[in-house]
Amino acid sequence: MEDIINSYLARSRDVVARVPHGPISTLGQALLRAYRNDKQVFTLGNGGSASTASHMAADLATSTIGPHMRRFRITSLNENAAIMTALANDIGYEFIFSEQLIEVIRPGDLLIAVSASGNSPNVLEAIRYARRESAEVGALLGFDGGKAAQLADIAIVVPSDNYGIVEDVHLMVNHMLVEYFLGYLASSRAWTA
Predict the structure, then answer these.
(1) Can you tell me the distance from the alpha carbon of 159 to that of 14, in angstroms, rounded to the nearest whole number?
(2) CB 105 within 8 Å of CB 113
(3) Where in the sequence is the domain holding 107, given as residue range(s)?
(4) What's the start-to-end Cα distance of the chain, in Å?
(5) DSSP of 48-101, one letter per residue?
(6) DSSP H helical ranges for the chain
(7) How confident is the model at residue 190 (pLDDT cuts 50, 70, 90)?
(8) Bridge-partner residues for 110, per DSSP?
C-alpha cells in the first residue's frame, strides 16, 4: 500500500505542477462577469465529474449567502434524476443536458462542462447548444482535452490520463475559482442596495 500512496502522490504533484494557469484565470474572470451582469451559470458532468459540477454549484451559490448580498445564479444540470432519466429514456442519453438548456440559457450566460475525457456525447451536445445560444463555455478536461477542448471558449486541460488524478485536480480548480470569487466579493463589497 505504501508504494501505491507514494506513487499516486508523486504523480499528482507532477500533474499539479503542469496545470496551465491562464485558462483558470480566464474562467475566473468569466464567473465574475456572469455575477456582475446577473447572468446564469450552468454546470454539468457525468459520474465523478457530475459530483464536481454539483460541488462547484454548491460552493459558488453559498458564497453569496449573506445579508444584502445578491445571490450567485448557478445551477447544476445533473441534480434532478427524474428529469435526466426521463430525457435519457424518451429522447436519448446524449440529450440529457442540452434539453434542459432549451428556453433557459441566454446570450452571455456561462456553461461549465466537467469531463475527464472531453468526449462524452451528452457533454458535447450541451456545449454545442450553449454556443448556438451565444452563451460562453468553459470546460474542465483531462487527457488531451478531447473534442470539448476545441468547442469550448475556455478549456482547462489537466495533463494526465489518470481519471482519479484528473478528477482530483478538477476539484482543486473549483476551489481556486471559489477563492478568487470570494476575494472579489471581499474587495468589491458586491452587495445589493
Answers:
(1) 9
(2) no
(3) 2-188
(4) 56
(5) HHHHHHHHHHHHHHHTT-STTBPPP-EEETTS-HHHHHHHHHHT-GGGTTHHHH
(6) 2-17, 21-36, 48-62, 81-90, 98-101, 121-132, 146-151, 163-188
(7) low
(8) 41, 136
Domain count, the chain: 1
- Please check whether residue 68 lies inside any domain of the structure: yes
Mean per-residue pLDDT for 122-134? Answer: 98
Which sign does the torsion angle of CA 27, 29, 32, 36 carry?
negative
Q: Decide if 140 is inside a domain.
A: yes
Asked whether residue 193 is assigned to any structural domain, the reply reads no
Domain containing 45 — which CATH number?
Answer: 3.40.50.10490
Task: Give the per-residue pLDDT at 184.
Answer: 86
- pTM beyond 0.90, yes or no: yes
114 has which bridge partners?
45, 140
Question: How many Å apart are CA 181 and CA 57, to the nearest integer?
Answer: 13
Q: How many CB atoms lie within 10 A of CB 189?
A: 8
